Amino acid sequence: MLDQDEQSLHSRFTDFEKFCRKKGLKMTHQRLEIYRELLTSSDHPTVEALFLRVRKRIPTISLDTVYRTLALLEEAGMTNRIQTSEGLTRFESDYGVHHHLTCKKCQKIEDFIWESFDTMLLPPELEAWGTIQTRNIVAEGICKDCLKKEKK
Amino acid sequence: MLDQDEQSLHSRFTDFEKFCRKKGLKMTHQRLEIYRELLTSSDHPTVEALFLRVRKRIPTISLDTVYRTLALLEEAGMTNRIQTSEGLTRFESDYGVHHHLTCKKCQKIEDFIWESFDTMLLPPELEAWGTIQTRNIVAEGICKDCLKKEKK
DNA sequence: GCCTTTAATAAGAATAATTCTTAAATAGTA
DNA sequence: TACTATTTAAGAATTATTCTTATTAAAGGC
Asked: Which residue from B66, B95, B102 is spatially nearest to B80, judged by alpha carbons?
């Protein structure tokens, strides 16, 4: 499992190089580190959080570069933007179809997969609307940790 | 159908009065007009848009009052906040379970209902997470109008 | 209906998130 | 190694949202 993860991480870096070449974009130190940080972050970080993490390795990096790079990665479909109900923008690296579960108390976001939903046919009325490309579930509630705290 | 809508609109206003009384809130002209505007808007307006519409009837209303009132209504569960991928906050009056369909081009949001999804049991693994209260689908694609424009 | 109390409002200042501007630095290429 | 076009850092500008304060108005008692 770990091997496989590392394998896939490595191949994703290679993809990033290829991607830059193909698009005529320069492969900068900053872009690589931002992308790496996002790949290894599983907590759906905000731009600010990502900036602080990357700054440990590149102390002179600017917040603006993080914004620009994330926009770039998003456009290329390599990351997803998540608009939370707190009003903050969070990011995650794109790794296939999944859904989100958010705690209303602590705002923590967890991923989950649900294949029987993914393969379900949408209501036929929606065909008249246009072409539907993605469909994601946003579920909200109170997580176990916050439920415990409430009881105290 | 129209009769029923008007009926339900009227009862919702009455609810609003009751709601204010119960919470010890004052029933102001501004609050009523903002609530009315949201009830009769089906296009998921932004705060700014709502402000401009209400201003036609109350020219001196301030943007801040719209923000404050929407926060109030949201807290009471009478409206829902929708965080769009454009990064804008939109609002809709709460009228029962439904889902959203957004056009990636023109950003228009349409509602749809899908009862067979609503009654579907969530994956059992999620029970370990905590208590799940809501689950909504956000579908994205290109609407018919934008598809037509693309062909030109 | 008028008075009092307290909450709500308007106006504009303050804050926070994001984007833009510009000069300097750097990647890719000859 | 030198050249050219991108990209970057820094900070200014913009935009959305919230806060502050003096004024206004709703609700309830008289």
From this structure: B95
